[in-house]
Design a protein that fits this description.
This protein has helices spanning about 35-45, 45-55, 65-80, 110-120, 155-160, 170-180, 205-210, 260-270, 295, 320-340, 360-370, and strands spanning about 55, 65, 125-130, 135, 145, 165-170, 195, 235-240, 250, 280, 285-290. It is α+β, with helices and mostly antiparallel strands. The strands form 3 sheets. Strands 5-6-8-9-4-10 form a 6-stranded antiparallel sheet. A hairpin with a 6-residue loop joins strand 1 (about 55) and strand 2 (about 65). Helix 1 (about 35-45) runs parallel beside helix 10 (about 320-340). The protein is globular and about 70 Å long. The termini are far apart. The model is unreliable at about 310-320, about 360-365 and about 375-380 (pLDDT under 50).
Length: about 375
């Protein structure tokens, strides 16, 4: 529906537009569940992962991408495919004929969300997600900041110096927390009861949970040595990660925020090294919608009430972007089987993508379903 119908978080009409350069998270294939999923999707020659690696940015052990070229490449590949036609019209109701895969993303339009809710008879689940600010690199004071990945992680010098670090003393940290807690913030509207996604909490919410919370979270000073003052260990560190291939933009890592724009500039300009920082984008907060997939979908990802339309991506939320990318091909395969009368069967239980369909996983998630992350855990007896 974009760009005709806009969302809070998106800027363009490109397919595959992401609002965070690090949406793919860890790329550790051996020790991280998301990294394992990356590997599986590459083995399947998936468009999204293949394009992500083509537009990869230095980010230590994470898979970060240059978001605009990434989305442009995904859009061009889909438009060039002989069996795909692209329409930018808004879908406002569930189709009543044919075979459809409903993959609307977390920012589902209001009318389609209402149609899904009417069909399932279940109240849509929701959470508030936040976006971090982006700073122009040439406005950062490099006499204060330095380049280093935590624990010097990375195989190349570029990877080992992928992050820009701003140090804080104890007094500077305490003053920062005071300013953060006192800042003007966007409040929920009357009747809005959704919580936050624990993996992407606004920094103000983290600070409200305890003054030291940020210092043990995104501002932890471990694994870093201040190149400008190596004899003194910082009390806290604010990290920024490159947001584009040119290196002109840097994203403040973990600094998702619901502060009002004026307050953001005041608070973030108090960070050493960012006193004169200019912002290409300020942070913000938006509502994401999802459904309780273990309850509402069968083992072929179809709405139980219809046993017809697979729902993929954030409408049935499992493990954020990578999980959704993994669901797409599986939903497509089930849809193709429906058209020729065959049955793909349940998803394999021995890989990261398939374990999400395991009966125990489905029972467990139905009982405690929320905005969960992809994780490593055994699904079958050894």
């Amino acid at each position: 529906m974009r760009p005709k119908v806009k969302t809070f978080a998106h800027r363009t009409g490109n397919l595959g537009e992401m609002v965070c350069s690090n949406s793919f998270r860890s790329d550790d294939h051996a020790q991280n569940a998301v990294g394992l999923l990356h590997w599986e999707m590459m083995q399947a020659d998936g468009l999204i992962m293949k394009t992500a690696y083509q537009h990869r940015l230095p980010a230590g052990g994470a898979l970060a991408v240059d978001r605009d070229p990434f989305a442009e490449s995904v859009t061009a590949a889909l438009k060039a495919h002989p069996n795909i036609s692209v329409s930018y019209e808004e879908i406002t109701a569930l189709p009543d004929n044919g075979h459809w895969i409903i993959a609307t993303g977390p920012l589902t339009s209001g009318r389609l969300a209402e149609a899904v809710q009417a069909e399932t008879g279940a109240e849509a689940l929701a959470f508030f997600d936040a976006i971090a600010p982006i700073v122009y690199h040439d406005s950062i004071n490099m006499d204060v900041a330095w380049m280093q990945s935590r624990y010097d992680k990375g195989e190349t010098e570029e990877e080992r110096t992928a992050y820009l670090n701003c140090p804080m003393t104890k007094d500077q940290y305490e003053a920062f927390i005071d300013a953060l807690l006192a800042a003007d913030k966007t409040e929920f509207k009357e009747g809005e009861t959704a919580g936050y996604f624990d993996g992407c909490l606004p920094i103000e919410v983290m600070a409200e949970r305890g003054r030291e919370t940020l210092r043990f979270g995104p501002m932890k000073p471990v694994g870093l040595t201040n190149a400008n003052d190596p004899q003194n260990k910082p009390y806290a560190v604010v990290q920024l990660r490159r947001d584009n291939a040119l290196g002109t933009l840097y994203n403040i890592v973990g600094f998702q925020t619901k502060m009002k724009y004026g307050a953001q500039k005041f608070v973030f300009n108090s960070i050493p090294g960012l006193e004169g920082a200019e912002f290409a984008r300020l942070g913000g907060i938006h509502r994401n919608t999802f459904i309780n997939s273990p309850t509402l979908l069968d083992d072929q990802m179809r709405l139980r009430s219809l046993a017809k339309h697979p729902l993929c991506r954030a409408d049935h939320r499992r493990g954020r972007l990578c999980r959704k990318c993994g669901d797409g091909p599986v939903g497509g395969a089930h849809g193709c089987c429906r058209t020729d009368g065959t049955n793909l069967g349940a998803r394999a239980e021995h890989n990261s993508d398939g374990c999400a369909g395991h009966p125990y996983y489905r029972w467990r998630r139905a009982k405690e379903f929320s905005t969960d992350e992809c994780e490593l855990w055994p699904v079958s007896p050894a």
